Amino acid sequence: MSIVLEARGLVKRYPKATANAVDGLSLSVREGSCFGLLGPNGAGKTTTVEMLEGIIKPDAGVILYRGKPAGAEFRERTGIQFQDTALQDHLTVRELLDLFGALYPRRLPEAELTKLCDLGELLDRDPEKLSGGQRQRALLALALVNDPDVVFLDEPTTGLDPQARRNFWDLARSIKARGKTVLLTTHYMEEAYALCDEVAIVDKGRIIAQGAPDTLLKKHFDGVVIELPKGDFKAPSGGLQGEILERGEITELLTGEVEAALEALKRGGSSLAHLRVRPRTLEDLFLALTGRELRE
Domains in the chain: how many in total? Predict the structure, then answer.
């Protein structure tokens, strides 16, 4: 697949900051793929996305759309769904689609948008009276009104219940199935794993890991996670092969020797009644690479 969006050496500095918010970041997004940009708070992820979207200008570096500097054509061929959007008061969803559609030289037909985003009964309603999931579907339709080649989804499922989140995943998959390129930012690692062909983890303004989710997991991890309630865990005197982590009321043992670990736990007096063995996940990788401390 060809490269539709590329960033080379992006740098962004903010006044009085002790370090660059984005520090020489480069990436490329393949056409028709879903690319996930992940990172903890303050890592430079949001600044990177805003530069890619054309909202702010980089202090250095270049952004290319189909091999040329991103300009008017890129803006016409891009759709953005922000995490939250202030909409014009006293307009229905249908009227907002008409308003946004009038801003572009080409527009996706209303019937097609309605089917794609499952708007149905929402068209003649006030967006302020929609549920969280319904509002996100309406905002997605506004992002798609110009039939864009590249769609930015900025934390689109934040605050949604699990059912609404899974329904939105289906919408995102349907967009990609139409040949669109999707750039997703999310704090939900399960979401990134489910939707993304490729992810890039950003920290301190740089990409610290990039690739297909399963490829990254195989590269960084060998083994599984043994979980048991903190109160059931007793460290055996002989020690355990693997790393022990505390996650709230859960103790995790990261090991490549499952049988030996289970035997050691039993010898040490740990209760295995509520034990669970699971594979390593994208969230494990994210925490291993970016740290477990809280960031504001």
Answer: 2
pLDDT digits (tens, 9 = 90+) for 152-197: 999 999 989 999 999 999 999 999 999 999 999 999 999 999 999 9
Global pTM reads: 0.89
Structure tokens at 219: 């590269």
pLDDT in tens, 241-263: 778 888 889 999 998 889 989 99
Low-confidence residues in the chain, pLDDT < 70:
239, 292-296
Q: In degrees rounded to 5, what are phi and psi of residue 88? A: -60, 135
Ramachandran sector of residue 22 (left: φ over 0; alpha: ψ -120 to 50; beta: rest) = beta
Question: Could you tell me if 229 and 201 lie in one domain?
Answer: no
The DSSP result for 140-160, as a single string, is: HHHHHTT--SEEEEESTTTT-
With respect to residue 286, please indicate whether it lies within any of the assigned structural domains: no
Residues 135 and 185 in one domain: yes
Distance from C-alpha of 60 to C-alpha of 11, rounded to nearest angstrom: 5
How far lies 27's CA from each of 61, 185, 187, 266, in Å?
Answer: 11, 14, 19, 48
Statement to judge: residues 188 and 247 lie in one domain:
no
